[in-house]
Each structure stands twice: as C-alpha cells, then as structure tokens.
Specification:
The protein is α+β, with helices and mostly antiparallel strands and about 375 residues long. It is built from ten helices and 18 strands. The protein has a six-stranded mixed β-sheet, with helices on both faces. The chain has a four-stranded antiparallel β-sheet with strand order 11-13-9-14. Strand 1 and strand 2 form a beta hairpin. The chain is elongated and about 85 Å long. The chain starts with 5 loop residues before the first helix and ends in a 5-residue tail after the last helix. The structure holds zinc ion (ZN). The site of zinc ion has 5 residues, from loops.
Length: about 375
C-alpha cells in the first residue's frame, strides 16, 4: 500500500466527522479518524499504538513512533473538531472544497489538516538517518475536556525532548498562554413566604455578600500578579452567569453563580481556587453548610516554555516569527508534563477557527511543509553518512 497524496489525505480527514461536544446530541467518536491515521502512519513505517481513553466510550489517542529510544521530537494535534453552525456554512463542512486560494472544511486548520502536513513531511525522510525518535500524537476531546491530552500526561510512557502542537497560530511560535477554570458557587438557603423574611434564609442576600468578596478578589489578582507578556497581565475573574429564585413572593431558596478564572504561568489553578475559598470563608462560617464551591470542568493550567529553549530558537529562526503569548488555551500544559519543551505552532489563523467556512489559506502550504521537514531534520535525524 502506498500513501495517498496531500490533498487526498486532507480530503479524507475532513470527510470523516469527529465532533466533540459536551452536548451528547453533537458528540461523536473519533475512532474513524484515529483508524485512518494509524493505517497511514503504519504505511509510512511508524510503530503505532492506539489507546482507548479510560471512562469514555469511542474516544481514542494514537501515538506513532519512528526510531528507537527516548527523546526526540513529538508532533501533536487533536483529532476532534467543534460542532458547526448549521445553515451558516456556505459549503459542506465535511467536504474539502478548493476555491480560490483556500481549502474549506471543518477541521482544515483546527486541526485535522495538520496530520496531512505531517504525513507529507515524512514521505521524503531518509529513514536510515533517524537518530532520535519522531513521534506523532493524535488526541481525543481537546475541544471539550482535553481528556486525550490529560491521559497521555498521566501515562508518562513517552519522553520526548521537544513537542510542537500544530494549532493554527499563523506559524508564529507560541510559548505561553493562560489557563482556564470554570467554577460554580451555589448558595442553598431556606425558602419561605416573603411576608416574613426571618422564616427563611435568602440565598440571593447571601450571594450579594459573596459577590462583594469576589469583587475584592478581582482587585487582589490585579495587585498581586503581573505578567507583561499578556495584554491583560494578571489572572482574571469573570462573572458569567447567575440564577436565583423563582418568584417575588418567596424567600429565595437557591442561587447559583458561575465564574471563570484565567491563571497566568507560575500561578497554579489550585492557588486561585484556594484564594476563592479563603475569600468566602467568613461567609461560610456565618452560614454553615449554605455555600458549595465546585468545578464546572476540570481546570486547565497555564503554560509557558523557557524562552531560552533550543526549540523556541529553532522555531523562531525557521518561521521568521518571534515567539509570543496568546489568550486561548491548548493542550500544551498537559503535553509539557511529559518533560518536554513545548510550543504551539501551526498553519492557519486562530480567527478562522470555530467559525463557519473554516479554511486554510493555501499560502501556508509550502512554509508549513518546509518548517516540519526542517524541525524533523534538526531534532531527529543524524548527519548524512
Ligand atoms: Zn484546536
């Protein structure tokens, strides 16, 4: 069997739906994409391992390895896409459409297309020169829980020296981003007739006190932390959703607030969570058992890679772009837990991701192919003998 051409690979990946969503009506298995990748990388000479994500049905990771031992380079990406806005696409999201200078389709830049680039880059490799292993990681559920990347981090069975995650950064090396936490604060009071407030505990009134404390936390974040790489240099706390009560003539029995917090590198998700708990400790004491604080999803830590890393220097030199910090989250904080210097860098612009008519600008094709070939040569191949 021989490998399909670049456009055929791209077309096949886009035509294989792999939506992940916290909404079960949208959520799909990524098995079909993983099976295709596994077969192509095997054909290209890689040893392939497919693993099921514990506790999830129909979700898989793939690690493909060329060469022996530890170290070397990991090229990583996620196999899932976000759902698409029905009726808002002018093209079929699952049909690769070449039009003008663009390739349209769901996942063209975020980010199934990255695997087509990798397969193209390994075609021309002189396998006899492999000195350090080249590994390809394809993960599940990046767009929802990052379960695939979390599983790879917890297994610790591969130890690359360097990792590149091919998210759409416009081929700018990204070396830093904030983390993300979604937290709920639920006040459980006691409902009753509104004519006598003393007969109940009004959850909205308790929440009012909570909000006052959290406004102070916002200021604490600003005063205490500062990372000038970010446009917003401190961790943030955003009030995103609040709901309480049902009727004007009842004492409100329950009120729930959802916030998000975005830690900066060097500030753990636990530190921010403890700041939250400490801020509410006095109210908790005053109303025992009334306050619950819990994660709406597992926190994603912030991430940064040392600016002196050979990976960043190489990526800057090859791409001609200076490394920068970004506002969105990726799998980098989990991949980094494998002990490797990690950057995010891939074709396409983030502004075109998660949008109707997602596309890859064809001007990225040659620079991306050249970049991947050069990275592999630099970190995996020995000298020509
Ligand atoms: Zn992505």
């Amino acid at each position: 069997m021989s490998l399909p051409g670049f456009i055929e690979t791209y077309r096949d990946l886009i035509a294989t739906p792999s939506i992940s969503s916290t909404d079960t009506a949208w959520d799909q298995s990524n098995q079909a994409v993983i099976t295709k990748l596994a077969s192509w990388f095997e054909t290209a000479g890689f040893a392939v391992e497919v693993s099921a994500i514990p506790g999830l049905v129909g979700k898989y990771n793939m690690v493909a390895t060329l060469g022996e031992g530890e170290g070397g380079l990991l090229l990583a990406g996620h196999t899932d896409t976000v759902p698409f806005d029905e009726g808002q696409w002018s093209k079929d999201p699952f049909k690769l459409t070449e039009e003008g200078d663009r390739l349209y389709g769901l996942g063209t830049i975020d980010m199934k297309g990255f695997f087509a680039f990798i397969l193209e880059a390994v075609k021309d490799l002189d396998l006899s020169r492999i000195d350090k292993p080249l590994r390809i990681l394809a993960t599940a559920d990046e767009e929802t829980t990052m379960a695939g990347a979390r599983d790879i981090a917890s297994r610790q069975h591969i130890k690359p020296d360097y990792a590149v995650i091919g998210e759409p950064t416009g081929l700018v090396p990204v070396f830093m981003h904030k983390g993300h936490m979604s937290e709920a604060i639920r006040i459980t009071g006691r409902s009753g007739h509104s004519s006598d407030p003393s007969k109940g505990l009004n959850a909205i009134e308790v929440m009012h006190k909570v909000l006052a404390e959290l406004l102070k936390v916002q200021q604490v974040f600003k005063d205490k932390y500062n990372n000038p790489h970010f446009e917003v240099p401190s961790p943030t706390l955003n009030f995103g959703h609040i709901h309480g009560g049902d009727s004007p003539n009842r004492i409100c029995g329950c009120c729930e607030l959802h916030i998000d917090m975005r830690p900066i590198p060097g500030v753990s998700t636990n530190e921010l969570f403890m700041t939250l708990k400490t801020a509410l400790a006095e109210i908790d004491k005053a109303y025992p058992g009334a306050i619950d604080i819990f994660h709406l999803h597992e926190p994603i830590p912030a991430y940064s890679c040392s600016e002196s890393s050979a990976l960043i220097q190489t990526a800057e030199q090859l791409s001609g772009n200076k490394a920068e910090a970004v506002n969105y989250c990726t799998e980098a904080p989990f991949i980094q837990q494998l002990g490797c210097d990690t950057i995010v860098m891939g074709p396409g612009h983030i502004g075109q991701a998660h949008q109707p008519d997602e596309y890859l600008d064809l001007s990225f094709v040659k620079p991306t192919s050249d970049l991947l070939s050069s990275l592999i040569k630099r970190f995996c191949l020995g000298p020509i003998t």
